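Give me C-alpha cells for this 422-residue protein.
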Amino acid sequence: MQNDFRPLAERMRPTKPEEVYGQEHLLGEGAPLNKAIHSGNIPSMILWGPPGVGKTSIARLIANSQNRQFHTLSAINSGVKDVRNAIEMSKKNRMFNPKPPLLFIDEIHRFSKSQQDSLLGAVEDGTLVLIGATTENPSFEVITPLLSRSQVYVLNPLDKAALDKLFERAISEDKILSKQNITIKEKEALYRFSGGDARKLLNILEMMIQTTTSDKIIIDNESVEQTLQENIAIYDKTGEQHYDIISAFIKSVRGSAPDAAIYWLARMLDGGEKPEFIARRLIILAAEDIGLATPNALQIANACFDSVHKIGMPEARIILAECTIYLAVSAKSNSAYMAINQALYFVKKNDPASVPLHLRNAPTKLMKDLGYGKDYLYAHDYPRNFVKQSYFPESVKNMRFYEPGNNTTEEKIAERLKSLWK
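Here you go.
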C-alpha cells in the first residue's frame, strides 16, 4: 500500500504506448516512435512539447522496452561533471552490453553551451543514446551540432478527446479514485484550467478529492473554480497561471498600456518565467500587433531576444522592460497579420493557379523558347521604379489582401499604392 501515497500524476504514469494520450502521431501503430520501440533501434532524439504531454513518460517507456542501462539527469541541478560521469558509466557498461545506454536529460534547454558540448562526442560515437526533453524550441535552445545528430519529435498539447481518456482512466483504474463516490456534472472548467497538460488535470482532480469533506465528490465548473481559488498559493507555485499571465501581458502591450504591461512582466519574472520565452512572445507581438505602423518594432524585439540570450538574468529584466515599453507605446497595426490570414484562406479554398509565363524564371534556352520570362517588364527601367503589369495568375486577377491600417506610416503607404495603381 506504500505506493498509494504517490501523487496521482505518478500513479497514472503510462506503462504502455497506448496510454500516452494525444501523441498517436508518434506512438500509434506504424508511427515513428512506436516502430523504434518495437525494433529496438532507438535514435538520439529531442522530445519537444509543452509541459505535461508525455515527454518523460515516453522516455521511460523506451527505457522499459530496452534491455540496456538507463541514466537520467535534470538540467536544473546537473552540470558538466554529472554528464561526464554518465558518459564514463556508459563506456564501462558497453563492456557487458553491446547496446549503448540511454541518457535522458529533462529540460535540456536549460543546459549551457558547454554542458551540451560535453555530450557531443558520446552521442556521435555511439557511446550513448540521448533522449532530451524540452518545452522550448530546440532550434533556439539546443546547439546545432547536437541537434543535427538527433531526431526531433514534436508532442502536441492534449485536446479534449485525450483529456477525456485520461480523466476516465484515472477515476476508473486508479486504486484510490476508483473507490471514491464521484459524480461528474461538468468538465469544462477542469479542462480549461488544465490547458492541455495531463499533470495539471490530475493535480486539480487530486486537489478536489483531498479538499472535499463530503463522502460524495461533485465535479462541476463551480466546484473546480472554488477549489482552485481556495488553494491559489499552491496552484501558483506550480505555474498553473502561466498562460493567463502571458495573455494579460500581450493584451496590455497590444492595448498601449505600458504600466500594466510592466506589471505583468514583473509577475512573470518574479514567478521564474524564462526571459527567452518572454522575448520570443515580444517578437511575435511586434509582427502581429504593431507591424507596419512602427516597422522598426520587429528589429527592436529581435535585438531584445539576442541581448537577453547573451546577457541572462538579472540584467535581462532591463532589456525586457525597455522593449515592452517601446512596443506598448508604439502605433499599432495588424494589417500584415490580416493580409496573410486572408491570403491563406483564399489559397486553401481555391485550386492552385499556374504562374504566368512572364513571371517565370528562364535560366535555360529551352525555357526561353517556351516563353518563360517573355514580356516581363523590369520595374527599375521605368520612372519611379514602377510599371503597371499583372503579378497574379489570370484566375486570381484583382484580388486584394493587404488593407493599410489607420496610422501615419500606413496612410503614406496607402497614398503611394493609390498613386501607382490608380
